[in-house]
Amino acid sequence: RGDYKGQSGMAMTFGHGVLIGKSTKQKLNAKSSTEAEVIATSDAASQILWTKEFMNCQGYDIDKYVVYQDNKSLILLEKNGRVSCGPNTKHINNRYFFIKDYVGTDEITIHHCPKEKMVADFFTKPLQGTDFTTFRDMIMSITPFYEIQTSI
Fold it and tell me: Is 0.85 topped by the overall pTM?
């Protein structure tokens, strides 16, 4: 019997291929798939901010990170925080909306990415056939990631 906790996936690119690929079980149960995605983005944002500081300390000035999402209502929640909450999302804890502050200062930018191009799904969904090989090739830099993203 499952514990109904969500699975978070993240793929961070730097140049070609995936620098950090991660799949983790969420530490708490979410009441909705949207809440699970907000939690996943919050966890990924923490990794993004740590990586930004690490790269800055190494002498690389990276001033903006782009987060790709395949859920348009989630993008609204990330950009507007609690203001975009409706009856089905009002239960989401405020602590997961800290990404809004970084979106507001343009340190993190949120872009829509169609589901069929969401490379982080490789870490959370059972993929077969073309989807599996396409994402595998992107992650391993066999097919450069930017070629896929520029066709979005």
Answer: no
